[in-house]
Amino acid sequence: MIIDIMKSVLFGIVEGITEWLPVSSTGHMILLNEFVTMNVKKEFWDMFLVVIQLGAILAVVLLYWHDIWPLHRGRGGKHDAKQGPMWILDRKVLRLWAKTIVACVPAAVVGLALDDWIDAHFYNWICVSVMLILVGIAFLFIENRNRKTTPRTLTMDDYQNNDLLIGMDDANIRNMCRMYGESRSNAGVHAKYRNGQKIFCLPEFHGSHANVADPWYTDDFETAYRDIEKGCEALKEFLKKTIV
To answer: CA-CA distance, 44 to 51, in Å (whole number)?
Structure first.
């Protein structure tokens, strides 16, 4: 009994690590089971592979709850004179859910139709090993091909060396505030700047609580361009009045 519990803990560690990496967590548990075999029936093992991933799934839900929950209070600049910010539906999040559901349909259809065949032919250490090697080679090839293209990411020094850090939407602002430990405020941009805050959402500079339209979700580059252009013009005026 104690040995099985220790094995379960080991499987949980492997699941927790591999779930956040671009590798198959289920595949690694299949490989681990070849070396540290769980003394259980096949039916329990099949259920175990599913249930053990629940913790990682819940962690993702909790971490990105504000990004996947479509109801937001006061987002988009809508307010009620008596009750304050109103609850509104975020269409960008709804489109994300719609696309996620559509993307799951083919996998569900194939999985239901070929479940037993897939288990028999692919849920084994040989198939997993071959695919991990092939995908690893593909990763090395892609990384080597794009080695000169280095993305610019925020660092802790950016907060110290810059007066303003500007994001395009609430998710950007929330992530930057979490990274740098800055509290969010509903004050105007001038008041926030005077109070020493550095993190702003671009539409704030023309008095809007909306986000810049993300063409990844909307497929509307014209609206995104207009939002950015309007924000940049307002930012220029802000800089003239505040800094210059």
So the answer is: 10
Nearest Cα residue to 13 out of 25, 4, 2, 22: 25
Q: List the chain pLDDT tens, one digit each, 244 residues.
A: 788 888 888 988 988 888 888 788 888 888 998 888 888 888 888 888 888 888 888 888 888 888 888 887 654 444 444 555 567 787 778 888 888 899 999 989 998 898 888 888 888 889 999 998 998 899 888 888 877 777 778 888 999 899 899 999 888 888 899 899 998 877 888 888 888 889 999 999 998 888 898 887 777 888 899 999 999 999 999 998 886 5
> Up-side HSE of residue 21: CA atoms within 13 Å toward CB?
15
pTM above 0.90, yes or no: no
